[in-house]
Amino acid sequence: MCHIPVLLNEVLYYLAPSSGDNIIDATFGYGGHTSAILNECSDCIVLGIDRDPNVISRANQIKSIYNERFNFIHGRFSEVLSELDCKYNKILFDFGVSSMQLDTPERGFSFSKSGNIDMRMSQEGKSAYDVINSMSQEDLAEIIWKYGDETKSRKIAKAIVEYRTQKLIETTEELRNIIHNTITKKQSNIDVATKTFQAIRIYVNDELNEINKALNSLSNVLVNNSIIVTISFHSLEDRIVKYWAQNNTNIIKINNNIINPSNEEIKNNPRARSAILRAFRYVISD
Fold first, then answer.
1. How far apart are CA 213 and CA 203, in angstroms?
2. Would you say 62 and 127 are in contact if contact means Cβ atoms under 8 Å apart?
3. C-alpha closest to that of 180 among 155, 146, 213
4. What is the chain's pLDDT, residue by residue, as a tens digit (286 residues)?
5. Which of 34, 43, 87, 269 could form a disulfide with 19 if both were Cys (CB 3.0 to 4.6 A apart)?
């Protein structure tokens, strides 16, 4: 699998792994950031967290290389962070969907290759198939608007409901074609189905609530002067991070300006184009 961790140099710069650090990679994915952090410093410890059961084998591989310097917990980061009884001094969040998930057609995250409509990170609970084929037109439109910022949400929801009166929508290709046949293609490199797929995925995985809960539970795991690095991929994620930072007196911005990928990184990894990195310091008030 070709996996390129986003904003890797910037992550290493702001986390600055050093001897004795206890670091959390709260969004382990394929372990690109984790491996780089462990390689950067020969004496730091990393805890990886991920709710996707498919990454467990990859976590085991990294464990076999770094032994006691790496540990992994399978679960939602919001729940794990609220239950940890150890303290850490640095944490990384790389929000959103991973390349591993996007590149596996049968997971149903991407419309670039046809696969079953699933989109569940944990592979548990209600799937995108259930949402698309059972939800009312009004609720579908609300989801597509709220989580995708799609101005044509009502039109798309109507087309979905009309299509499924003839047959259930079973593949990502079917859903993409419905959207393509509903919205005029824009003069852009961004596919018109992108926002709808994003919206359904966020809803299915309750991603925004997960982020909010996780950020608000950091006081449970962080020590004074801890470093927090977040990578967001759209305005909904970034808005939660900004609101949390602005309304938390224990949080101090390290980088006043957001960090975006360089043109060179975007050229090598187009999926990085919308990434936004923010870095903070967690300070315990006297």
1. 15
2. no
3. 155
4. 457 899 999 999 999 999 999 999 999 999 999 999 999 999 999 999 999 999 999 999 999 999 999 999 999 999 999 999 999 999 999 998 888 888 888 898 888 888 999 999 999 999 999 999 999 999 999 999 999 999 999 999 999 999 999 999 999 999 999 999 999 877 667 889 999 999 999 999 999 999 999 999 999 999 999 999 999 999 999 999 999 999 999 999 998 889 999 999 999 998 899 999 999 999 997 6
5. 43
- Whether 107 contacts 119, CB under 8 Å: yes
Q: Within 128-250, where are the H helices?
A: 128-134, 137-148, 153-164, 172-182, 194-205, 207-216, 235-246
Query: Domains along the chain?
Result: 8-94+208-282 (3.40.50.150), 105-205 (1.10.150.170)
User: How many other C-beta atoms lie within 10 A of the C-beta of residue 154?
Assistant: 16
CA dihedral sign of residues 184, 186, 190, 196: negative
